[in-house]
Amino acid sequence: MSQREWIEKDFYKELGVSSGASQDEIKKAYRKLARDLHPDSNPGDTKAEERFKAVSEANAVLSDPAKRKEYDETRRLFAGGGGRGYGGGFTPGGGGGFSQEFNLGDIFGQPGGPGAGDGGLGDILGGLFNRGGRASSRPRRGADVETETTLGFREAAQGVTVPLRMTSPSPCTTCHGSGAKPGTSPRVCPHCNGAGVVSRNQGAFGFSEPCDDCRGTGSIIDDPCTDCAGTGIQNRTRTITVRIPPGVSDGQKIRLAGQGEAGLRGAPSGDLYVTVHVSQDKVFGRQGDDLTLVLPVSYAELVLGTTVSVPTLEGRVGVKVPPGTADGRILRVRGRGVPKRGPAGGAGDLLVTVKVAVPQALDADATEALKRYQEAEKASGFDPRAGWAGA
User: Fold this and answer.
1) Using CA atoms, how far apart are residues 349 and 293, in angstroms rounded to an integer?
2) Among residues 247, 279, 311, which one ends one of the domains?
3) What is the pTM of this model?
4) Who wins on pLDDT, 138 or 363?
5) Does 225 belong to an annotated binding site?
6) Residue 349 binned pLDDT confidence (cut-offs 50, 70, 90)
7) What is the percent of the chain with per-residue pLDDT over 90, rounded to a whole number?
8) How far is it between the farthest Cα atoms of the chain?
């Protein structure tokens, strides 16, 4: 595919969003389409598989603010005629328009050329195609891939290793990504000497365009691999073991370098980004690196004091409730929270909130004892509403 064909793709239309969509809108649209079109959900459906590849390609550009900006700027130049010949329709020599596809990164970015060093279209295309504005025969790096996984609260806090089953373009296992039949190797294209581009002059102008013999790859495969048709890529299902570090939070992304979509003919693979979702726990909550829990206690335990066994991530620990503790007080148990990331290590704290549990019914003896306590409390001069603003 030529650069111009690639640029003229409407990635916004692929994702079903407007050109002014926010990054969150793009992310939500991609996630929904990826779930609906994933090959695992549509076995044998080639149309769904092609759409899955298309939306993944669109997301790889639009989810990256820098690439999206370059893509938008380049499309605007094309819409204004900046991508046809020179000067939006001017044809050297007065002839008709050019029908061939040009290497636009070379036309506008070669040393001494019209776009050299001016930060114009050559720089934009150079960044968009990772070519630095110069011709390159290196095959394009594979696209990044995104997936999701859901962990239990304690798994996320303590760290866990999870297997992820994915269906995506991967290096061909027969030719190991070279595209050539086992026992053979690609040879350097004699027409372009491995550059992938050839130059031609049109009047006063010099142009570079992809080499027709090697289709811009710089190499020729005489005996293609039969399993991948010479591309070096197969769409296959694989299982990847992912180590989730301790303390990962809900919505955090884990990057696995080189585990994304395979590059063409042995080019580097893209990266895999795993978005982690964390389910809620019945006992624990979380505030940064601190764990939180609510401890039910009786009124007598608050007044007289007690020691209560509470759960932690590793087991249980005794928490001392001092006499006269107020309802709602937070007791801190240091070092019993979520493991901290970074070289410092350590862990957060366990924050225990005491909350009095009121009995819904009492027998006759308990009711009588409570009444006697109430009378004794009044006799001692205790007033629970002393100093209260509403008194």
Assistant:
1) 11
2) 279
3) 0.52
4) 363
5) yes
6) very high
7) 27
8) 112
CA distance 357 to 296: 6
Say if CB 214 and CB 140 are below 8 A apart. Answer: no
Do residue 350 and residue 331 come from a single domain? yes
Instruction: State how far the Cα of 130 lies from the Cα of 120, in Å rounded to an integer.
Output: 15
CB neighbours (10 Å) of residue 293? 16
Count CB-CB contacts under 10 A for residue 132: 14
User: Is 214 known to sit in a ligand binding site?
Assistant: yes
**In terms of domains, do 149 and 274 share one?**
yes
Residue 83 token pair:
């991508």
159: nearest Cα among 247, 89, 28? 247
38 domain-assigned? yes
Residue 231 known to bind ligand: no
172 is in an annotated binding site: yes
For residue 236, say whether it is annotated as part of any ligand binding site: no
211 assigned binding-site residue = yes
- Yes or no: say if 221 and 186 are a contact pair by the CB < 8 Å rule: yes
Q: Measuring CA to CA, how many Å separate 355 from each of 299, 321, 330?
A: 9, 11, 10
Using CA atoms, how far apart are residues 207 and 198, in angstroms rounded to an integer?
8
Q: How many domains does the chain have?
A: 3
How many Å apart are CA 369 and CA 367, to the nearest integer? 5
Let me know if residue 256 belongs to a domain.
yes
Half-sphere exposure of 237 (CA within 13 A, CB side): 9
Domain, as residue range, for 316: 284-356
- Alpha-carbon distance of 270 to 64, in angstroms, equals 14
- The residue behind tokens 């990504």 is 177
pLDDT digits (tens, 9 = 90+) for 163-187: 988 887 888 888 888 888 998 988 8
